[in-house]
Write a structure and sequence with these properties.
The structure is a single chain. The protein is an alpha/beta fold. The protein folds into 2 domains: 4-136; 149-401, Alpha/Beta hydrolase fold, catalytic domain (Rossmann fold). The chain has 14 helices and 6 strands.
């Protein structure tokens, strides 16, 4: 068995390895970007010179040689553009495919190269800034809160070892001094069942760390699980703070819409969900009840039965998509929910996510906005105008400054 100290050292070594790999990636990207820039300049100069020779001198040996060199340079330019598409993580799959489709079209591929180069330069600047920032505050431990963090996931997911629900966020928090734990509640467990699992987890954390309380950061339905834990299971003395992110405190009209389906059909679908997540690790999945607990009617009764408890600091956040095109995964539910209720993050409206000490709506200045999945780094992508890792670092830093 590996001891706790060895595990911590392995995490530190792994973190150093990832940082080193990040620096190597950026240096390679910077080198390829420079080569692409040079090739683009040479294409313009070489193409213009070859055309001038062809017009002024006609077809001769020197002109043919210039054309051959131009074609070789053009081929190198295309190869570099392909490599840029592979290396730049800011270029999404759909855009990569678009570049590869039009890479053979003269002039068009030149403008595509300008676009890809711009994204790559943004990535280089952002990553280098982030590495420098990490080096500066490495000793500050700005996320070393008084109480450990418990990250509580939402519905339809589990905490897996190799596929983290929270993406790159836990590593960033741990790098800055946080002690991070996971809820490990069930993907389709009811609020009550998951509340009991969270209670067991908190008791385990308290025994391991000697701390009297934990700080809970919960996403989506995880916020309801956590509120039931605190108010329904009398665990207020063990929770210093509860931060809910995109939690449907007032339910989701999307669930009410789905409940209009024939009951037999709804139960049939839920049975298949239960079967799948039972194989994935859920011991008692109940998609029928768990989904109903996200409805507006259930939320109203839930809020009456389980109010906020004294001694626990509550705060809430919401995010907002700009349009249905902001997320391929949540485009349909976004449009349905917008037609039924209001603009939303793909699953939850701002009004529903608003709870005690509402800290505001998270979005950016660009067309994409921030979806229900973006706020937990589901796709592991960086977006212009919003750094999801930095958002959680600032959130936890604020908890530390508040004494939690």
């Amino acid at each position: 068995m590996i001891g706790k100290r060895q595990q911590r050292q392995m995490k530190i070594d792994y973190d150093k390895f990832l940082t080193a790999a990040e620096k190597i990636h950026i240096q390679i990207l910077r080198f390829v970007t420079a080569l692409l820039t040079i090739s683009m300049c040479l294409l313009v100069l070489g193409g213009g010179f070859a055309l001038w020779r062809l017009v002024s001198s006609g077809i001769g040996f020197s002109t043919i040689l210039l054309i051959i060199l131009f074609l070789l340079l053009y081929g190198g330019f295309q190869v570099l553009l392909v490599w840029m598409c592979l290396l730049s993580r800011r270029l999404r799959i759909a855009k990569r495919l678009a570049v590869w489709i039009f890479i053979w079209v003269p002039v068009v591929n030149f403008f595509l190269a300008l676009y890809v180069r711009g994204l790559a330069r943004q990535e280089i600047d952002h990553t280098l800034y982030k590495i420098d920032l990490d080096d500066v505050r490495a000793e500050q431990q700005i996320c070393s809160t008084r109480y450990p963090l418990l990250l509580v996931h939402g519905v339809g997911f589990r905490d897996f070892h190799y596929f983290n629900y929270w993406g790159r966020i836990p590593r960033e928090l741990a790098r800055n001094g946080a002690k991070v734990y996971y809820g490990h509640q069930e993907a389709w467990g009811t609020v009550e069942a998951n509340g009991h699992l969270l209670k067991e987890k908190i008791q385990e954390i308290k025994r391991e760390t000697g701390c009297e309380k934990v700080n809970i950061i919960a996403h989506s339905k995880g916020g309801l699980d956590s509120r039931y834990l605190i108010s329904g299971l009398n665990m207020a003395d063990s929770v210093a703070s509860l931060t809910t992110v995109n939690t449907p405190h007032r339910g989701s009209m999307l669930v009410d819409f789905l409940k209009r389906l024939p009951d037999w059909l709804y139960r049939f679908v839920c049975r298949w969900i239960n079967l799948y997540f039972g194989m994935m690790g859920d011991k008692s999945p109940d998609a029928y009840t768990a989904s109903y607990q996200l409805s507006a009617a259930y939320a109203k009764e839930f809020n009456r039965l389980y109010p906020d408890m004294q001694g626990v600091y509550y705060q809430s956040f919401a995010s907002l998509m700009r349009s249905g095109f902001s997320s391929k995964l949540l485009c349909v539910p976004y449009w349905v929910l917008k037609a039924l209720d209001a603009p939303n993050d793909g699953l939850v409206t701002v009004e529903s996510a608003t709870w005690t000490n509402f800290r505001g709506v998270i979005t950016n200045r660009y067309l994409r906005g921030i979806s229900h999945g973006d706020i937990i780094d589901l796709t592991r992508e960086d977006y212009r105008g919003f750094d999801v890792k930095e958002f959680y670092v600032k959130l936890v830093e604020d908890l530390k400054l508040k004494g939690f």
